[in-house]
Amino acid sequence: MNTLRTTMLLAAMTALFMGVGYLIGGSGGMVIALLIAAGTNLFSYWNADKMVLSMNRAVEVDEKNAPEYYAIVQALAKQAGLPMPKTYLIDNPQPNAFATGRNPENAAVAASTGLLERLSHEEVAAVMAHELAHVQHRDTLTMTIVATLAGAISMLGNFAFFFGGSRENNNPFGFVGVLVAMIVAPLAAMIVQMAVSRTREYEADRRGAEICGNPLWLASALNKIARGAEQIPNEDAERNPAMAHLFIINPLHGERMDNLFSTHPSTENRIAALQEMARAMGGASPATRRQASPPPIQPEEPSAGPWGKPADAAPEAEPAPPKPNPWGRNPTGPRNVRPKGPWS
User: Fold this and answer.
1) Are 83 and 104 in contact (CB under 8 A)?
2) How many helices (H) and strands (E) does the chain have?
3) Nearest-10 Cα torsion for 14, 18, 23, 28
4) Taking CA 138 as the corner, what is the angle to CA 134 and CA 141, rounded to the nearest 5 degrees?
5) Which are the catalytic amino acids?
6) What are the CA-CA distances from residue 184 to residues 25, 50, 153 (Å)?
7) Which pLDDT tens digit goes with each residue over 307-326?
C-alpha cells in the first residue's frame, strides 16, 4: 500500500512539473520541463548523496576512529541483510540522523554527535536501524527524486516571473497561468513532497524496530530526539530546509503538526504506533519473537528491561562517571566553542 501510494505521489509530482511547463510556455514549455526534470533526476541520482553529506559537513568514520558507533551500524546491517553502508559523523549538537544513497550498495548513514552523546547504546542502535530501513526500502532514492522535482518546480515558478509576461511565450492561459506557476505550483509541489516523506517514515519505523529487535528502543529515541530538536537549532539544516525530510526527526524549528505542511508525522503518533507494535510482539511466543527479530546488540548484563538494567534494580548510590569517549576518537577535530564532551 505504501509503495502504491508513493508511486502515485511521484506520478503526481511529475505531472505537476509538466503542467507548470505548459502554463508557462504551452506544449513547447511542457517538453522543456520534461527535459529539465529528466536532467535534474539524472544528476541527483549520481550526486545527491555527496551533496547532502557535504551540506551537513559530514565526516566518514570507521572502526578505528569511531569503533562503537561503527560496530552498531555493522551489526545492524548484517541483521538486515544489507551491505555495510558508509558511516558518517556530523559535528552538530542537535541529536538527529539520516540516510542517503541511490541504492543499498551505494548507501550512507550519518548520525550527529548530539545523537551519540544524548542517547543510550540501545537507542542509537534503534535510530540507525530506522535509517537502514530507509536504505532497504530505497526511500533515499525516492526522496531525492521528489526533493529535486520540488526544487525544479520552484525554479520554473521563478522563470514564470521573468518570462511569463512575454507575448511570444505561447502561454495559453495568459497572466492567470503565470500566477498559478509562480504561487500555486511550488506550494502544491511542497505538499506532495511532504506527503511522500510522511508516508515512508511510518514504514521505516516499523522495519527499523524489527531490525533492532525492540520497538520501545526506537520510541524512546524518537522522544529524546524530538525534545532535543526543539531546544537545539541545526544551523546547517536551517540554511538548507529542502533536505529536512531526510532526517529521522524534522531538524527545523516550528514543524510540530501532523498535517500536510509537516515533513514528518507527529512524534506522538509514531511513538504510539511503536508502542502498539511492542504490545503485539509481547503477545507472540518468545520463540516466534526471536525468529522474527533477534536483537543484534546484546546488553553487557542480563536485564528485564530494554535499557540494560533490571526492572527491579535498586538505584545506585553514586552514578558511575561517564566514559571519556564512549564512541572512539573525535574524527571531526577539536572544538573551540562548545565545552568539552565525549567527542573532545
Assistant:
1) yes
2) 11, 4
3) 170
4) 105
5) 131
6) 17, 31, 10
7) 334 344 444 445 444 444 44
For the entire predicted model, the pTM comes to 0.71
Report d(CA 66, CA 283) in Å as an integer. Answer: 38
What is the spatial order of strands in the sheet that 58-61 belongs to?
58-61, 86-90, 107-112, 97-101
d(CA 54, CA 38) in angstroms, rounded, equals: 24
- What are 208's three cell numbers? 527499523
Of how many residues is the chain composed? 344
Instruction: Tell the residue number behind the cell numbers 511570444, with chain if given.
Output: 168
How would DSSP label each residue in 29-87? HHHHHHHHHHHHHHHHHHHHHHHHHHHTTEEEE-TTTSHHHHHHHHHHHHHHT-PPPEE
Place of cell 536501524: 129
What are 196-225's pLDDT values in tens digits? 667 789 999 999 999 999 999 999 999 999
The strand pairing partners of 89, in sequence order, are 59, 111
CB atoms closer than 10 angstroms to residue 132:
27
**How many CA atoms within 13 Å lie on the side-chain side of 256?**
8
| Gap between the Cα atoms of 123 and 139, Å rounded | 22
* C-alpha grid cell, residue 251: 531538524
Strand partners, 97: 111
Sorted by sequence, the CB contacts under 8 Å of residue 285 that are 6+ apart come out as none
